[in-house]
Amino acid sequence: MHPEDTEEFRKDVTGKRALIVCTNTDQMSNGKSTGVFASEMTVPYYIWSDAGMEVDIASPLGGLVPIDPQSYRPVIRTQYDDRALKDGYLQKNLSESLAMEDVDIDAYDVIYFAGGWGAAFDLGFSETIGEKVTEANQKGKILGGVCHGPLGFLKARGLDGEPLVKGRRVTGVTDKQVKDLRITHTPHHPETELRRLGADYRCNHRFRDPFANCWEVDGNIVTGQNQNAAPMVAREIMELIS
Questions:
Q1: Are 197 and 163 spatial neighbours (Cβ–Cβ below 8 Å)?
Q2: What is the CATH number of the domain that holds 35?
Q3: pLDDT one-digit tens code per residue, 79-114
Q4: Whole-prediction pTM value?
Q5: How many CB atoms sit inside 10 A of residue 238's CB?
């Protein structure tokens, strides 16, 4: 389910700083529990932390970041998820996440958006997130996202005043995958929204494979189609900041 990154990373990123932005939404419109998809947060968190980077957690409103209980199921669950459950420091940061309005963009080299169904209910609707991502892009920060995470780019603007993603190669969970997983009632679908803004949307389709995967690097934007791309997105981001 979760492929290992086969590329070895040997460069120094000690002291670099990343902000992982997660959802605050813990329930979908159909009443089912949701949140951030665990591995889309834990995989980059530990890959970066283990490499010597400093990593903070933020959310649109601050405070508790809920974890989608479905992401802890056998097969889907990762070694990084198990590690996170025993990590008191990370658990504290997830319960007391920074509010995006309080984030100092100058303090970070990377702004990364974790996905999960919950992200479809808040990341793309936040004016504050749009303003912060616009600022981060203007200052040359690396921007990343996996699955529903790239919804955090929707309200951001590029240097030309056009939508940040217009003409940029990006990916995120596909409309087909959303349909295959039977979660079509969410208000934002990454493929639909990214294409609407003029993005050069890329993806990998396979017959009856809801976890077909790819990742894209376009300048300072690094995106992954779903949770299986998290290791590669994390590594590509380290390559850019090293």
A1: yes
A2: 3.40.50.880
A3: 999 999 999 999 999 999 999 999 999 999 999 999
A4: 0.96
A5: 23
